[in-house]
Amino acid sequence: MFMSVSGQELCDKAIDLALQKGATYVEARFESLQNNQFVLKNGVPELGAFDRTKGLGIRVLVDGAMGFGSFNTLNRNSMNEAITQAIKLAKASSRVRKHPITFSEEKAYEKKYAAKVVQSPSDTDPEEKMKILFEIDKNISDLPIPFRIVILIDTISHRYYVNSDGARIEDDIPRILFYGLLTAVDQIKGAMEQAYFQKGATGGYEWIEKWDIVNFLKKEAEILTRVASESKKSPKGKIDFVAGPNIAGIIAHENCGHPSEADRILGREAAQAGESYLGLDKLGKKIGSDYVTIIDDPTISGSYGYYLYDAEGIPGKPRYLIKNGIFKEMLHNRESAGFLNTQSTGAARVSAFNREPIPRMANTFIAAGDYDFDEILEDIKLGIYIKNHSEWNIDDRRFQSKYVGREAYLIRDGELTNELIRRPVLETTTPDLFSSIDAASKKLEFDAATCGKGDPVQGTPVWHGGPKATRIRNILVR
What is the pTM (predicted TM-score) of this model? Predict the structure, then answer.
């Protein structure tokens, strides 16, 4: 029987041991995670989930190659085996690598921080959490929605990170996520419309009140029933679109965030998640109109993608991926930054202790503009306001994309009507899309999501969003 040791102590010891075994760089990351999931399906409780995981990941550089090992039995023997495995993998890789891996030179920080929380998930009784779901479901049960699922997920993560450069980061981050899936049916027409809704934040159950979640889903359910019964065919031809924050956010995430990830641009992600239409030759070049500024910022307090230091100990900051139409900045970890002889942008993220840090988004959004909502509409003779989506598709290079509206309204003679349009399609290339944006309104709104990437896949919490109105001119509707 091996004696259990604390994750922090093992991290500290792993640095010295791996250096003794020949590593030129070492990092160790301990993570513990509490995850609780509560599910209600058509008013009936489903089997939930209560996960408790903890473990340690170790990454090394040896002879210009990288190796990684992890373990969840916290003792020195497991640590030694993981380090031995990581160094063995690195040495094997070094024999076939054409170019040695180098990490960017970065300042080493020692910081400890915790996200703000008022009503911690651990201080909230499971019965209270289920009461929230029952109240949500009861509030929509009288609507023609024969299929409905509502889910609450809360997590508390603790991380301790140290590397051989002298970095030492410790953080505690609680998160909460609400997910709803609704199917509305028009009994006369037989028409059906399905939608999912997500609200997520860093913090605790104080967000349930902030979101006004019971009334929020009631309103969305009522609109969904209208979409199923009242929506009419979309106009055809080239027209103007006005994107709501949900559509703007997905565009920011899919058409800008992913193709700005440096590992995609360098080809490392090609076999897993795709490539990028943005090459190194595009950096500093115009790729959209002057009205397009897209930012990725992990430091937004309360955001679902919040962090102050990334998984390599680098400070998070607002990253201006596109600024006034110019491709300004990539999402880097230390590996991609080292390859391109630049600095990390603090974008390294992991989903668990047994995953490697890779460049990821956090909270990605189209920046707000100077226009009022009515000013965005006033010179549109015929157009469509797409508030949110029913589906979307994009190719592996993030070049060809399609967004299909769910709640969408006709714009006529500069006025937003109450006429619902059924599934209008915004289909274009990313360069044409960004070149066609000519205005954005003032106030930002966000949606939560879990972004998937990597092999094995890593799902990380993110926000995406944008202004209430982003105007996109002259898009072909078939």
Answer: 0.96
